[in-house]
Structure formats: C-alpha cells, structure tokens
Amino acid sequence: MPVADALTELLKGVTLCETETAQLADANGRVLAQDLASTRTQPPFAASAMDGYAVRAEDVANVPATLTVIGEAPAGHGFEGTVGPGQAVRIFTGAPVPNGADTILIQEDAIRDGDKVTATESPARGLFVRPAGLDFSEGQILIAGGAKLGYRDLALAAAMNHAELPVRRRPVVAILATGDELVRPGTEPGPDQIIASNHAGVAALVEDCGGTALDLGISPDEPVAMAGHVRRAIEAKADILVTLGGASVGDHDLVQDVLGAQGMNLAFWRIAMRPGKPLMAGHLGPMKVLGLPGNPVSSLVCALLFLKPLIGAMLGQEIGPGVETEAVLASPIGENDRRQDYVRAELGKTDDGRLMVTPFAKQDSSMLALLAKSGALIIRPPHAKPLPAGATVPILKL
Ligand SMILES: Nc1nc2c(c(=O)[nH]1)N[C@H]1C(S)=C(S)[C@@H](COP(=O)(O)OP(=O)(O)OC[C@H]3O[C@@H](n4cnc5c(N)ncnc54)[C@H](O)[C@@H]3O)O[C@H]1N2
Ligand code: MOO
C-alpha cells in the first residue's frame, strides 16, 4: 500500500474532539474550535499615535504658526471640549483625538511657551491619527476555527476582549512500548537489554501536535500482559493507542494478535515505505490504533507521517507532516526500489542560497543519532531513478 493511500485509510472515520473552554492563559498551543469574531472595534476611537499636540491641519499649514493650548489629553483621559480655530490640545500616545482636531503635531516640531505652542513644521492632515477601527472592527472574524493558537493569536484574542476561548479537547494518545529487551531510561539494563527510547520521542511529538501523551509503560512480549496494557488504554478512553514494536513478522511480534483478540478492526498492515514497512493501523471500538515499528527511526518517522496528521484531524486541522519543499542534492543518490524512501540528510545551503541536502551514507533505521542530526528527509518515490549531484529532490524539513 502506498504511503498516501495508507494515510487516507488511517484518517477515515476520525471523530473530532469535543469543544471545551480554555482561559486565555491556558490556551497557548490549543486548537481553536470555531471562528473567533471580535466583540469590539480597535482602536475604539480615533487615537493619537504620538506625543504632541492635537491640531487642525489648516491652522498649521503655514509655519511658524502659534496656537493656544486649551487642555490636555493623556492616554485613558480624553479632552471633553472641541478644538477650535487657532487652538491645540496637548496630547499623548493612545489618547482619543479631541473633537475639532484632525492632525497630531509631534512635540519635536513644536515650541511650547506657557499656554502657547508654535509649530515649526507643517504636518499633513491626518498625520499620526489612528482612525477608529484601524486594526479591526466589531464582528470581524480574525482567527479561523482550526488554527493552532500561538502568542500572536492570544494577544489578538485578548484585544478582541475574549478572556476564554472555545478550543478542542486535547486527544489522549496512549503509548505502549513492547519488548522483553526494553527498560525505562534511567534504569540499568540487563545483559541483553537496551533502553526504550521511542516512547520519549513519540510522547514529545504528541504534545507538540496538541495531544496529551499517556504513558502505558513497557509490556513484555507475552500476550496476557500485553492485553492488560491494551485494556488500560481502553479504560482510560484514549483516543489513540500507539504501540511501539512487535509489529513485524517474528515469533515474538505479538501486537497484532493481541489487539485482534481484543476486537481490533485492522485497516492495514505493512506499507510501501522505508523506514516503516510493518506499520499497522486499525480501530478498537472508538479508539484508533497505530502500530509503529520498533526500530527507533521507523517509529519516529512513522509518527511524523501518520500520527501527526491523525492528531490534527481529531483537532479539526488538515495538517501534513511538516514543511515539504525542494533541495539540491550535494552528492549522488541511487535508484530506489518499490518502497517510498525517507532518506536522512544534512541540510545546508548552496553558494547561491538554495537549500542543499547531503544524504548520510548509512541509513539503518536503528540510528537515532543520525536522525537527530538530520535537517531533512529526502523523499524518494517508489522506483525513483538514480540522481546525480546537483539534481533537485523533494524534501521534508525536520
Ligand atoms: N523477516 C523479517 N524481519 C523483519 C522485517 C521483515 O519484513 N521481515 N521487517 C523489518 C523492519 S523493516 C522493521 S522496521 C522491524 C520492525 O519490527 P517490529 O515492529 O516488530 O519491532 P521489534 O522487533 O519489536 O523491534 C525492532 C528493533 O527496535 C528496537 N525497539 C523496539 N522498541 C523499542 C523502543 N521502544 N525503544 C527503542 N528501541 C526499540 C528493538 O529492540 C529492535 O532492535 O522489523 C524488521 N524485521
Ligand atoms: O521499515 Mo524498517 O522501518 O525499514 O526498518
């Protein structure tokens, strides 16, 4: 099954997470559940953009021109009266421009003497006046539903006077590592054991995508124990169960059998992708199941390509794995077989500033250090022809 078809299959029947309310202070990184309209106009009044004097443009058309200062308007305290011919109001940035005035004379271009001010420059009409609604107007939709809220959105939402926001519940992603050889980080492994690494990476990706990671620990390669771990995911009402390892064809690769016995409907198993051939997907009741291959690079690349869009879909977002673009090959690359290949590569720039990729000579799917060093994955479609240095290739930036 091609990668694109597998993704389409995985996203079938996804249910959106419900809407809940988040306080502004807790909304960073959350996904907005519906379009957000402003409850007010900003600025709500014509405001001064500078410290100086509110004047009538015609009064300072010919300079020097001396005006009478009839009052003061600091921010938060408008001047109640009207600026008439030959008059000015001392004004500060953010204050409402008083009636009658249409222009701000900045204080650098004015000489003050008691209640008189003399303009030494002639500002154009409307200069340094921010008209009401310059930024936005009441009722205007400023943030679209499905947006992942960042610092700029939160400032804007605050300016719109929303103290709380409708956001999607974070999907809960239960993560279960499998394998007798695995121990948790920080533990002394036995003679034939290694440290379980995939969990840490997948959990971080889940959090980055706006989900909540639920650690189900490590199951031994033993069906009864593994079934118990799976039941914990069901009891926790996880939206997604991610299993790590045990997805291939070995005698101790039990994940699919255990999930099948629990009633999982299999969507697909094995895809035309490298790394990630034994990827498995299905659903167990309402819970989506994604079986990631155990090899660490396979786990993480599959999580990026499949888990990220799946979490996005539950949050109402149509998102891909990341930034897909093109780069120039720094060294030749060989012919590809029938699996779509995601080649780990260093990312740099050519002398003329174009993106450039250098594929690593070793591509073993156990090599986490190389993945961490990679700036991009070169995407090699099935049966792609060999390419010389200088050719352009599609890449996924990491
Ligand atoms: N005869 C065949 N053997 C294999 C095939 C195949 O088609 N025929 N596929 C290979 C490919 S490709 C992959 S990828 C792996 C994936 O197999 P599993 O998903 O069953 O993974 P495991 O066997 O459990 O583990 C593989 C490897 O990764 C290490 N591992 C597992 N989990 C973790 C973890 N949480 N953290 C760190 N490392 C982990 C494990 O110790 C193994 O070294 O199968 C090939 N075999
Ligand atoms: O697909 Mo496996 O992930 O090649 O190592």
Automatic annotation (TrEMBL):
Its EC number is 2.10.1.1. Its cofactor is Mg(2+). SUPFAM superfamilies: MoeA C-terminal domain-like, MoeA N-terminal region -like, Molybdenum cofactor biosynthesis proteins. It catalyses: adenylyl-molybdopterin + molybdate = Mo-molybdopterin + AMP + H(+). Pathway: Cofactor biosynthesis; molybdopterin biosynthesis. Keywords: Magnesium, Metal-binding, Molybdenum, Molybdenum cofactor biosynthesis, Transferase. Gene3D superfamilies: MoaB/Mog-like domain, MoeA, C-terminal, domain IV, Molybdopterin biosynthesis moea protein, domain 2, Molybdopterin biosynthesis moea protein, domain 3. The keyword Metal-binding applies. Residues 174-313 form the MoaB/Mog domain. It comes from the Bacteria. Catalyzes the insertion of molybdate into adenylated molybdopterin with the concomitant release of AMP. Belongs to the MoeA family. NCBIfam families: Glp_gephyrin. This is Molybdopterin molybdenumtransferase. It comes from Roseibium polysiphoniae.
